[in-house]
Amino acid sequence: MTASDHTSRVAAYERLTRLPTFHPTAVKLLALSTEADSAMADFERIFEADLTLAADLLLTANSAAYGLRARVDTIKHALTLLGLERVRSLACNIMWGAYVRKQMAEVLRPLWQHSIATAIIGENLGTLYHVPGLYTAGLLHDLGRLGLLLSTGERYAETLVEETTDVEEGIKSEAVLCGINHCDAGALLAQTWGFPELLQVVMVEHHGHRPVGSGSPVGLIQVACRMADWLGFPELRSAPSAMPVLPQPVLNAPQLEPIRLRELINKQAAILSP
Amino acid sequence: MPRSFPSHSDDVGPYRVVPADREADPIPDALYDVLQSPSLFGRILLITAIRSSAMDAHDAVDPHRSHTPEIELALERLHLEMFMSWLVLPLQRQKADIGIYLNAGPAADRGAKIQQLAVLGERALPLGSKRPERELFVRGLKIVRALLNYDK
């Protein structure tokens, strides 16, 4: 350890904590349990207090990308038709998009597509393994990259557009460049903003290799992140990655068929693009 | 036999301490335990305990357990150095180090210790540390607690 390592990590932390807080409504939604008896009423109350978000949610839910047969006119209807978890993930998607939109959209486009891809694959893996909440976890798993971009600006933007061959090397270089890597940066932001523990863990460990077993949410997001790279939505500009080692149930699942996934990802990325 | 003191270039590995003439040694015996602990987090907690016990003794005017100002100053510096070495570690390495600390104790205490990590950390903050350093330390421990909870 050198004094400058210590100083730059503390300085990086201070820069991150000065960033504007992620949407307060998102934080409230993320903290709600979908299992509680009062969940439906709790969700409705939050949307009643944020009419802009409610309007955006109805607009997005009625868009072609969601392909709903019935028109959704009220939040109550959306909650009944789509379910609490889906409404929450959709709301996070809208707010995340709005947060990104204010920044360097061109630099962030590949990262945005990777996040949407990981969210969609994560959600489908979650359905397969009966694990809820993976859309949101997939969508936000790379929050640290956005945090580093906003807190260090051009310096980090150059890293995002450079072609890279090795994510691990990239993680080491960003720690040298910014004082902290994006995994730690994301988790610290998530902790500061009061995100649930699962999101903090996913941010630290999304490049790891936990066994999926009977449905480890962290392991499933790791698989989703690697699949997103392989399907052509890498988090950094890089050569196409080899097909990851996938558990047998994933290989056999029709909802995780690559052509179907690519189509879904492209549709959602287009409609929600920053 | 000469005693080798830590170089601080190795930020996690145990310090190599060869006890020499202990009777002539002004450094409290408990410090040997600190320097030999394989976990940096464990070392921070131990040095905090030594300092706080000496502080209590000082308040109680117990000259046998309180340190001389020179020793207290040395302990304070060592505490701060260990704390700063900790802050540089990425969260995955902090988790690995705390894993070593937890494995060194009884397995039955593991769960309770995980839940108390942030509280233990708050008690182990060196006085000379700055506000953002203290925040980063405690936030990091809360995240490590979450990581360990998801290992179960």
Question: If you had to describe this structure to a student in words, what would you say it looks like?
Answer:
The complex is a heterodimer of chains A (274) and B (152). Chain A has 274 residues and is an all-alpha fold. Chain A has one domain (3-271): Hypothetical protein af1432 (Orthogonal Bundle). Chain A is built from 16 helices and no strands. Chain A has helices at residues 3-17, 24-31, 39-48, 51-61, 75-82, 84-101, 105-129, 134-140, 143-152, 154-161, 167-178, 182-192, 197-205, 217-230, 248-252, 258-271. Chain A is globular, with a radius of gyration of 18 Å. Chain A starts with a helix and ends with a helix. With 152 residues, chain B is mainly alpha-helical. Chain B has one domain (22-149). Chain B contains seven helices and no strands. In chain B, helix 1 runs antiparallel to helix 2 and helix 4 packs across helix 7 (131-149). The radius of gyration of chain B is 16 Å and the shape is globular. The model of chain B is unreliable at 1-24 (pLDDT under 50). The chains are: A mainly alpha (274), B mainly alpha (152). Chain A binds chain B through residues 1, 3, 5-6, 9-10, 13-14, 17, 175, 181, 183-184, 187-188, 191-192, 197-198, 200-201, 204-205, 216-218, and chain B through 8-9, 11, 84-85, 87-88, 90-92, 130, 132-133, 135-136, 139-140, 142-143, 146-147, 149-150.
What low-confidence regions of chain B span 5 or more consecutive residues with pLDDT below 50?
A: 1-24
Overall shape of chain B = globular
Question: What is the number of strand segments of chain A?
Answer: 0
In round numbers, the mean pLDDT of chain B is 80
Distance between the termini of chain A: 40 Å
- Poorly predicted runs of chain A are none
Total of DSSP H or I helical runs spanning 4+ residues of chain B: 7
Specify Rg of chain B, calculated over alpha carbons. Answer: 16 Å
* Rg measurement of chain A, Å: 18 Å
What is the global morphology of chain A? globular
CATH superfamily heading of chain A: Hypothetical protein af1432
Number of helices of chain A: 16
Overall CATH class of chain A: Mainly Alpha
Biggest beta-sheet profile of chain B: none
- Encode the helix/strand succession of chain A as letters: HHHHHHHHHHHHHHHH
Structure classification of chain A: mainly alpha
For this structure, the CATH topology of chain A is: Hypothetical protein af1432
CATH architecture of chain A: Orthogonal Bundle
